Amino acid sequence: MNSPFIPPPPIPLCDAHGRLNPEAVGWSAQPRVDCSLPGNRGRRKRWNHWSISTPDWTLSLIQADLDYVGYGAAYFLDMNSGQHVALNQLSLLARGCNLPDTPLGSHAFEHQRLQLHFNEFPGRVRLTATSPNIGGQPLHLALDIQRPVHLESVNLVVPFGNKGFHATCRQVGLPVTGSVHLGDRDYECTSGHSFASMDFGRGVWPLHSHWTRAVFAAPGGIGGNFGSGWTEHSGLTENALWFGGALLHLEQTVQIQQTRNDPLAPWQLSTDDGQVDLTFTPRQAHVAQPRLGFGLAYADTYEWFGQYDGLLRNALGERVPVCAAQGWIGTNRVRW
Fold first, then answer.
1. What distance in Å separates the CA atoms of residue 141 and residue 127, rounded to the nearest whole number?
2. What is the per-residue DSSP string for 160-228?
3. Nearest-CA neighbor of 226 among 154, 314, 174?
4. How is residue 14 annotated by DSSP?
5. Are 100 and 106 in contact, with CB atoms under 8 Å apart?
6. Distance of CA 307 to CAs 218, 302, 304, Å?
7. How far is residue 1 from each of residues 4, 8, 25, 133, measured CA to CA in Å?
8. Angstrom distance (rounded) from CA 23 to CA 36
9. Do the bridges between strand 107-111 and strand 114-121 make them parallel or antiparallel, or are there none, so unpaired?
10. Could you tell me which of 315, 306, 237 has the C-alpha nearest to residue 55?
């Protein structure tokens, strides 16, 4: 009888003094790092960002612990009408903000104005959220997010200058079922065309930072994750494609450029070798600019929601068409 496979113990992200462990640097297709962050008080940044994309609506939920403050946020957008609601809630010293050290752990944000719960079960996440007043309406949602065993993810640890570093797990194309109840309306997930993405981040960041990220998913396990900014000068990338749930890591740069200075102008995403040749057409745009301490700390976030069309090439060089895939692009510039 074969012995059951026992995964190796996770690699520590840091030593006991909070210094980056060189063995943790690099990327893998499965989580392999314990991202606990000793030391470095005041500069540690932890977050889990979940995004749900459907043909008719999109939902973004953020839970963050920035050491000196906790942050919970919910944003819901009706893709057809453009109507949206948003709520950003702070908690001093991150009270009520519980985040795990690995990507597959349960987490929760507890505040009287906003409650977020992400409960892990084998192969799935149960997501519930409640707010008595978001944009003048009550919010209640219950979603089941599937984590298929075969689905791979981008797991990356990147060193910065001045002893900083960041670890991330990007999970894309997770099937979602369930509904959102906002005010007197119910919004259902469209079967087979509703997907979640998760951004798990733990790191020690400089005061000023910026980055861009693009994500899409389509039926059949097709998906993409592209980014720039935070990995510069490291020789590492978070760029990846999914074909049938299997990950193809891209070491080359993916150009992410808007065609003209117009909020809803198309974007072009491409690689020099033609492996990525996509057009992203926004349907709606969103701006969030929370401020803390009279503007001493801020996060300027610009997001576009819409669809991706074009061509990809898989590991064998075969052409894979992308048609009306749900997704988004976000840019962030922060002082934290």
1. 8
2. -STT-EEEEEEEEEEEEEEEEEETTEEEEPPTTS-EEEEEEEEEE--SEEEEEEEEEEETTTEEEEEEE
3. 154
4. B
5. yes
6. 10, 17, 10
7. 9, 21, 36, 57
8. 15
9. antiparallel
10. 306
Amino acid at 116: L
Helix, strand, coil share (%) of the chain residues, nearest 5: 0, 60, 40
Residue located via tokens 């030593």? 15
Tokens of 237: 């990338």
Q: Which residue is it, tokens 């948003």? A: 86
Q: Which two three-digit tokens encode residue 53?
A: 């994309």
And the tokens for 12?
Answer: 């520590």
Residues in the chain: 336
Q: Using alpha carbons only, how large is the chain's radius of gyration in Å?
A: 19
Nearest to 87 by CA among 317, 283, 290: 290
Contact between residue 67 and residue 203 where contact means Cβ atoms under 8 Å apart? no
How far is it, in rounded angstroms, from Cα 236 to Cα 9? 24
Per-residue confidence in pLDDT tens, the chain, 336 aa:
555 546 678 999 999 999 999 999 999 999 999 999 999 998 999 999 999 999 999 999 999 999 989 999 999 999 999 999 999 999 888 888 999 999 999 999 999 999 999 999 999 999 999 999 999 999 999 999 999 888 899 999 999 988 899 999 999 999 999 999 999 999 999 999 999 999 999 999 999 999 999 999 999 999 999 999 999 889 999 999 999 989 999 999 999 999 988 989 999 999 999 999 999 999 999 998 988 776 788 999 999 999 999 999 999 999 999 999 999 999 999 999
Q: What are phi and psi of 333, to 5 degrees?
A: -135, 120
- pTM of the entire predicted model: 0.94
- State both tokens at 199: 């951004």
203 token code pair:
């790191």
Per the DSSP assignment, residues forming a β-bridge with 294 are: none
